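Lab notes, practical 5.
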Amino acid sequence: MKREIKFRVWDHNTDTMMIPDNFEFYDGEIGWIDASREAGPGSGNDGYPDQFEIMQYTGLHDKNGREIYEGDLVKNENGVLRVVEFHDGSFTLGDYYFGSIGAGRVLEVVGNIYEDPDLLEAQHD
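Output from the prediction step:
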């Protein structure tokens, strides 16, 4: 079974979500990241891995066809907001297992923890 492996990165220096163009590895660990904004060439930033939060694509789309990534804020069919996380080799929604087939059909991506932290804070108020 083939799965699509994709990433995005949050750049802490520019507070911008970017698409990594290249990961450079040194002794089996990421040592440098070349990243560009989705806006196009020439608008990116490169740097050491501690500058970025790396988020992996789950392989699923939400009910509107949007790709679901680690760090996304998703609402379920009851309007409950959850954060997509990766724990022990699986994607989760907090305490809930995320990997079931068809999970994306009932979820809607409403933001992510870096660009929309206010959504998460509002749920806890």
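Observations recorded by the TA: The domain at 7-124 is CATH 2.30.30.290 (SH3 type barrels.). The mean pLDDT is 84.
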